Amino acid sequence: MRQLITSKLASMTRDEKSFFKAMGARIAELRKDSNITQVQLAETMEVSQQTVAAWEVGRRGVPVSVVPSLARALGTTVETLVGETPSPARRGPAPKLQQQIERITQLPKPQQRFVMQMLDTVLAQQGR
Question: Which of 44, 87, 108, 127: CA 20 to 30 A from 52?
């Protein structure tokens, strides 16, 4: 397996290596900003933690078929994930609450339940 990974890296051009290294850094930053561990992201993506670690350091390229679901899991766009400036939305940016809801839906299920319990508690206190 190690030889296969090494041969894949050797067959990458310098530009491809640079691209995957930069993309890996973005993945790591987005994951950390979302307070998600490599293990949690790996579970969400149905890959090993070692695969996520390899993506983050640019040792392994992220398969194109995985990029959209990886972007969703990290609460970002494909454009941002691959390092492109996203084109502005026609209607303007989503309200902050909508953005937060979208990020919450990308959290692992235990963290989603925790956030929902907190919201239920706050809303119950307001209903008194």
Answer: 87
CA distances from 125 to 68, 118, 128 (A): 39, 11, 6
Rounded (5°) CA angle 39-44-49: 30
Classified as helix, coil or strand, 77 is coil
Query: In the block, which residue shows the tokens 């579970």?
Result: 43
CA distance 115 to 92: 27
If you count DSSP H runs as helices and E runs as strands, how many of each does the chain have, helices first?
8, 0
Q: What is the identity of the amino acid at 121?
A: T
Residue 22 CB neighbour total at 10 angstroms: 13
pLDDT tens, 61-83? 999 999 999 999 999 999 999 98
Question: Taking the model in full, what pTM does it have?
Answer: 0.61
